[in-house]
Specification:
single chain; 2 domains; 64% helix
């Protein structure tokens, strides 16, 4: 009795819209490459370097490195937010100091053009006249 030969039907290719942004095109290309490598691994035709690449991704060291990168990104985001908040606080303090000086009656301030103008004269100047 003759052995039945299994014939694999080719996988239908995914037809996707043409992506115009380079990031989305890059993602599509990576997905296609991953699909091709997966297919080669399943069929036993993958190269040694393809096997090694995926074996390295599964190691504890690789997992720790990914976690470390995620934490470093969180830290950078927190630092960036802290810098932005400190700039806002400095601006608020400067505005408050200018207001206090104005209320005391002897302050100069910068108008919208950046020109320094005398806002009010001190009491001594007014009394002398």
């Amino acid at each position: 009795m003759a052995k039945a030969i299994e014939i694999e039907e080719p996988k239908p290719r995914r037809k996707s819209k043409i992506n115009t942004s380079s990031e989305s095109r890059e993602k599509v290309m990576i997905d296609l490459a991953m699909d091709a490598v997966e297919e080669r691994i399943r069929s036993g035709k993958a190269s040694a370097s393809e096997y090694v690449h995926f074996l390295k991704l599964g190691t504890e060291q690789a997992k720790l490195e990914r976690e470390k990168l995620k934490n470093e990104n969180k830290l950078l985001e927190a630092k960036t937010q802290n810098i932005a908040e400190s700039a806002e606080i400095k601006k608020m303090i400067d505005e408050a100091m200018a207001a206090f000086a104005t209320y005391s009656g002897n302050a100069n301030y910068e108008d919208e053009d950046g020109d320094e103008e005398e806002h009010t004269r001190s009491r001594r100047t007014r009394r002398r006249r």
